[in-house]
Amino acid sequence: MIGENAGGDIVHVYWIMGRSANSRNRILVQEGSNLRTNLFDKANAGDTSLIIYNAMRVENNVHIVSNGDQTDTIAEFVRDNPLEGFDQALLTRTYEPDDPNFTPRISGESWVFLTSDKKGLLTQGLDELSIIQRGRDGNPVHRFFRLQRTPGIGHCIHTYSGAETPLPPFLGKPYPVPIGETIDQTADIFWSTLNDENKVAMVVKTIDAKTGEVNYAIRNKLFPSATVSP
Questions:
Q1: Is residue 71 part of a domain?
Q2: Is residue 216 part of a domain?
Q3: Residue 139, Ramachandran bin (φ over 0: left; ψ between -120 and 50: alpha; else beta)
Q4: Whole-prediction pTM value?
Q5: What is the tens place of the pLDDT at every residue in 34-89?
Q6: In which domain, by residue range, is 123 found?
């Protein structure tokens, strides 16, 4: 979810859900300006190739969020081209190879660029969401959505749209959701709406559009206090 709160801060919300024991064995941890998934119980680690990744990064004034290692691909591309790197990076990627679900890769960016004039600081930028899904022919289908900021409103996409087998992918456009006035209010809103059995972790990130200052509110089901890695 990407949006703007009533105070003008840019807001990113990301959560992870889990059906298998391996997927549920995770927490979110903050490392400086980045945020990643981590194992809760390393002694019971299974295949981590699709569950351990950087979920949020900042590169060249671009704030990135995604559900996989495409976070790093986006960061590499926007390092040289902050305006077009997001789209270019994702066109090199495909959906996840987890047959039969073929989980879509969902990603988002907020580009924040501060300039100055005689009246002070001006903020320029854009918000965008993307989803990469498996087409009927097996080829990846890339969809991109440019977003319009509206105070108090976010735009949301997710991976699946139901609980059938295999899991049906999300096919709609980003839909509006409410954002709280504070980071903790937003965290409470989203954490309480997630399915209690399957929710694993969630993070709310706010970005001050005037200064670039970042704050996080993390919720981990298994280890609520795990906000910073050792």
A1: yes
A2: yes
A3: beta
A4: 0.92
A5: 999 999 998 888 899 999 999 999 999 999 999 999 999 999 999 999 989 999 99
A6: 2-220
By the 8 A CB rule, do 56 and 67 touch? no
The count of structural domains within the chain is 1
Q: Residue 81: helix, strand or coil by DSSP?
A: coil
Any domain includes 81 = yes
* Cβ atoms of residues 61 and 80 within 8 Å: no
Q: Could you tell me if residue 138 is inside a domain? A: yes
With CA atoms as reference, report the closest residue to 227 among 183, 195, 196, 180.
Answer: 183
Cα angle at 218 between 159 and 33, to 5 degrees?
90
The CATH number given to whatever domain includes residue 92 is 3.60.20.20
Q: In angstroms, what is the C-alpha Rg of the chain? A: 17
- The tens digit of pLDDT for each residue in 169-208 reads 999 999 999 999 999 999 999 999 999 999 999 999 999 9
Structure tokens at 53: 């990744």
Distance of alpha carbon 144 from alpha carbon 217, whole angstroms = 27
DSSP assigned state of 172: S
Unique residue bearing structure tokens 């709160």: 5
* Cis preceding linkage at 104, omega within 30: no
Can you name the residues that pair with 132 across neighbouring β-strands?
Answer: 105, 142
